[in-house]
Design goal:
This protein has three helices and no strands. It has 66 residues and is mainly α. It has one domain (1-66). The longest helix is centred in the last third of the chain and has 13 residues, at 48-60. The radius of gyration is 11 Å and the shape is globular. The termini are close together.
């Protein structure tokens, strides 16, 4: 399933459910501006591997945002 939102920073269209979920988990559920994975990595100053590991961790915990 895709979300029709686009990246605030680079304009990438059609962010994935995981991208939308990690944005809401890390930045808050009421955020208006979403980032693609690459731009979120830059914004949070983490690596892509760290962020992908967090997504899997949250999924394993049953987080409903994913």
């Amino acid at each position: 399933m895709k979300d029709s939102s686009s990246c605030f920073a680079c304009g990438k269209a059609r962010l994935t459910k995981d991208e939308v979920g990690i944005n809401k988990k890390m930045l808050g559920t009421k955020i208006k501006q979403l980032y693609c994975l690459d731009c979120l990595v830059d914004y949070l100053e983490v690596t892509a591997d760290e962020l992908l590991a967090k997504i899997e961790e949250f999924k394993e915990q049953g987080c409903k945002l994913f």
